[in-house]
Amino acid sequence: MVLLSLLAAVTIGIVRLRNLFAIVILSGIYSFLMASVMIVLDAVDVAMTEASVGAGISTVLMLGVLYLTKTEESAPVHSPALPLFVSAVTGAVLIYGTFGLPPFGMADTPVNTHIGPDYLAGSIPQTGIPNVVTSVLASYRGFDTLGETTVIFTAGIGVLLLLKRLRRAEPDK
Amino acid sequence: MMFAAAILAVLAALILTVVRALKGPTVFDRLLAANSIGTGAILLLALFGFMTGRPEFLDIGLLYALLNVIGTLAVLKFFRYGSLGHGGEEETEA
User: Fold this and answer.
1) Mean pLDDT of all residues belonging to chain A
2) Phi-psi region of B26 (alpha: psi -120 to 50; beta: other; left: phi over 0)
3) How large is the ipTM?
4) B11 part of contact set with chain A, CB < 8 Å
5) Cα–Cα distance for residue pair A10/A105, rounded to 1 Å
6) Is residue A134, in this structure, part of any structural domain at all?
7) Which end of chain A has fewer surrounding CB within 10 Å, N or C?
């Protein structure tokens, strides 16, 4: 609860600040708090991803973007009324949707009874991997993960090629 | 019981650092606050792991500590040189 209110406070701070440099730091803080929330919810691997991607890589990438642009946010051109209305309605719909969800951690929901027990029981004899998350990712959904890795690898190659061209063009100016 | 008290203390420290990060007049205040919040998150992780009887959370705490240092260094480097690539080029020249 305390962590969630801290999250809300940091979010309001991000929205209100105009200095983009401070906003990058605040979003790093947000990621660390979010990772702590994930740990309290017992999703340690998600928390690890959140911390490494949110606080590590995103901060560095945002700083790289700041190098290309100004560090002060310009004043908004349009009135914020319409976006505020849209996001308020979307948030209300999402909160309304949570009323239809089963309570957190309930054992007899479809999510926990459909295929999860098979994975839990079969992980050690079928794959020999003690961590069930790893066995699902790398063995049961191995082709899926292979496809994802290919996509990310291709994207990385594309970004590297683009950046290389940019760097080579710079000394000519 | 002792772990719960310690977790409460760490949460209080987190609240104070978040206040500093939000109010902070200079960038460095915010940066130090971010670093302290990273440390607080590590402490929270370790305490929570011990409280629920799984001290192997400590490995993830180590990873957090490394990330925290890298993030802070990246921000400071940006502040000093204005870009992220500058320092590397300087090292190769020197």
Assistant:
1) 76
2) beta
3) 0.70
4) yes
5) 28
6) no
7) C
